[in-house]
Design a protein that fits this description.
Shape: elongated
Strand order of the largest sheet: 1-2-3
Radius of gyration: 21 Å
Distance between the termini: 10 Å
Strand content: 15-25%
Structural class: alpha+beta
Order of helices and strands: HEEEH
Number of helices: 2
Largest sheet: 3 strands, antiparallel
Length: 108
Amino acid sequence: MDASRIRQKISLLRGQRAKLEKLASSPTEMMDGYWTVRYIKCGKPGCKCADSEGHGPYYYISRSKSGNTQLEYVKGERLKKERLCKKWQQYNRWISDISKYNRQIESL
């Protein structure tokens, strides 16, 4: 690839990275963790859950602490907590993509 094409590619990557940096730096309320929906099978003989996906849905926020995944059961304000967790997930995708653009720029 010639120098002109490399400069064009770097310019394009920097533009994409700048858009994500602007989004990621905008202050917004969010909750760290990933929104998880689970269905549970109770194991009781004759229970309807044995032939279906299980009891539920039950809502959890999944977080990693010291290398272990911890689930926090969501009791109230489910919709608000789900929205805040989804914002956190989007934020993490932006940060991951910014890192990807940085690696691509450095490789050029």
